[in-house]
């Protein structure tokens, strides 16, 4: 990675089997990229395409043992996602170039203050405080694509206190990873250090302090953590 990027990045993610760290530049996320999740949120995937939003780089938490229950919410919800890490970028990428920009993959959680998100949505306001709060993007160690390939199918799941809540397959994505990167690169210039959270399957639900989360993506890895005490 470029030295200047490493020095400026607020967060660095571990890379499985390596001493080097991955410096995070920006975090992009995808909404409603699994049809079953779109439907559970009250939307028709046949009528609406997936869309992008962002979290600040500081929201990323590398391999945490726990994250605190955030303030100002009574409805913190989990969303397990395949995370894509880029070592190159550009504008208006085609699918082949988009794949060449991928450094590797990880398992991430898009933690969401659902009550704040819904309140903002109903008022036509931005989602930032529902999605982009501190500690809202825990991420596993990254696995280089040279090691795991480019998984486009395989089980993605999340359990809370040993009970399965979310399960799906990467092949269920409405837009696959390359298609997402192509569309995103038409909106912004992608660069080394960018992360893309690619969406979540159905089954999102509330968390409480003390809950133990076990999230995994087949062929990529897992992320286990606890929800700690409230920040309030």
From TrEMBL:
**Entry keyword Metal-binding:** yes
Any idea what this protein is called?
A: Fumarylacetoacetate FAA hydrolase
Q: List the keywords (alphabetical).
A: Hydrolase, Metal-binding
The answer to whether UniProt assigns keyword Metal-binding to this entry is yes
Q: Which residues form the Fumarylacetoacetase-like C-terminal domain?
A: 27-223
What Gene Ontology molecular function terms does this protein carry? acetylpyruvate hydrolase activity; metal ion binding
Which Pfam families has this protein been placed in? FAA_hydrolase (PF01557)
Q: Which residues form a coiled coil?
A: none
Q: Which domain of life is it from?
A: Bacteria
